[in-house]
Please model this.
Amino acid sequence: IGTLGVVPSLTKNFTSVNLTYYGHETGLNLVLNLTEHQKINVSANTALSFSDNNDGTYSLRGVGVNAVEGMKIVSVLVNDSLGNTNHVSGSLVVDNTPPVANLTIKNWDGFEESTFERQVLLMLEFNDAYGVDACRYANKDLVWTGWEPCLSTKSWLLTEEVGVKTVFYQVKDK
Model:
């Protein structure tokens, strides 16, 4: 008896995952259980045979995912040379919904209407059912910062010119 690993375990549609069976013997025949697997709609061009790594592990790479959002179970039927069978399963989460984000710009006195200072405080809100990975920011010139951990507030320097300012904020899904 072995275990089935699914990487990545959090994915979205039109991406692929790799399945690895970790067993204790070589020469096994592994078959993706299509009845269970149809819940994630295997791509037509996906080869459904596992390769034997000759060390008790078996790999199936590039399984295309197209499924309704949520937790999915991937099942594999393992057959040995004596005709014994065993089902192993692994799980993955399909997250097709982008994160929701909101940005409010405040001056250091807490006002949102106007400021005479270039240094402001960004009040940030973000939400996703399966979590967010990172955030990045830009002024109107769209010169983005690098991706960084998302926080609820961030000190920010506005552009120099006088007038209405625009700050952009992106949130990356896990």
In short: The chain is about 0% helix and 50% strand. Helices lie at 34-37.
